[in-house]
Amino acid sequence: MNEQITPPRNVDKRELWIDVSKTILIFAMVVGHCNPHPWIRTLIYGCHMPAFFIISGYLYKLHDWKKTTKSFFIPIFFFSLINLMAVLINIYTDETPFPDDFLKKCLYPFFMFTYQYGIFLFPGVWFIMCLYFCRLLFGDISFASSIRKFIYPIAIVCIVFLSLRFLMPESILYHKLNSLYFVRTVACIPFFAFGIWCKEHSDLLQKIPRFVVYILFPVYIVGCFINGGIDIWAEDYGVNYSFSFIISVIGFWLLYRGARLTIFSGAASVFQIFSTGTFFVLGTHILLRNVYWRWLGIDKIANWYQAILAGVVIMLLCYYPIKILIKKCPILIGK
């Protein structure tokens, strides 16, 4: 289990805090999708998906858009096929009527956010699509690379726009076009841009005194319960997008400081595997959750500790498949 993975040549040295942070965040996402107690969900949704975009911005390097497209959409296609087979098996075994609009329900979630409609063949596809558009917008498409130097003004404009969106008429707020991933990416740009800023000022982040943690930790908890968390998928930004942004940044910084603790160094290879296999967990965790629940003979979890236990079980089930794919077919997990 402590076997080291040989990193590819000509790449920067891995930063352990990133692997630890991604592992914690993907675990938090799994727990969040296992119907935990509302107070746990509130703390998780305070920063978990924004933090993913921040880390993605921190790690961002220019790639040709064709390479980005390949690394994003091959895993989507692969895991969607697996989940499609599971859906068809479930329909057959439960002897439920086959929906007339089955194809439409399967395709919709790949293009836009859907509420009470659609069959999600790749859970979390919205995150990948919004991240994809962020990358294209800030450099992966060559003619858009010049936009990169305006990333911070663009992020500020996005924050102001989303903070004042309540002034817009409902005909625009609830228009179907607003559910397109490309449009909803506006809410993700500020976090992605902040990640780029963190990379450019990484020395500054490390100089922030540790005692600040003791101040910001209760601020984050209180802020989460005041705001109610941020759910980009549901277009729920709590009290206000600006307030949500501040709380998410505080949550990310606490995660950054916590993930840099030396206690994690002994399991570096384990964190690296989960960090590398984020796509695998993202694409399979709902299927594994449903199988686990069916095995327990329940429809959903009602207790917070059961949700955490389900998250642990799902992560353990993902570990060895990810390890195998890293060695045998890394393209299936976007590498």
* Structure annotation, total helices: 16
Fraction in helix = 55-70%
Low-confidence stretches: 1-11
Structural class estimated from helices and strands: mainly alpha
Strand content: under 5%
**SSE order, one letter for each helix or strand:** HHHHHHHHHHHHHHHH
The overall strand count is: 0
Distance between the termini: 21 Å
Integer count of domains: 1
Shape: globular
Q: How confident overall, as mean pLDDT?
A: 87
> Main beta sheet, described?
none
How would you characterize this protein structure?
- The protein is an all-alpha fold.
- It has one domain.
- It has helices spanning 16-32, 38-44, 48-59, 65-94, 102-107, 125-140, 151-163, 170-173, 181-184, 189-200, 202-207, 211-227, 241-259, 268-276, 278-296, 304-328.
- Helix 4 runs antiparallel to helix 6 (125-140), helix 12 runs antiparallel to helix 13 (241-259) and helix 14 (268-276) packs across helix 16 (304-328).
- The longest helix is centred in the N-terminal third of the chain and has 30 residues, at 65-94.
- The radius of gyration is 20 Å and the shape is globular.
- 36% of the residues are buried.
- Mean pLDDT is 87; it is low at 1-11.
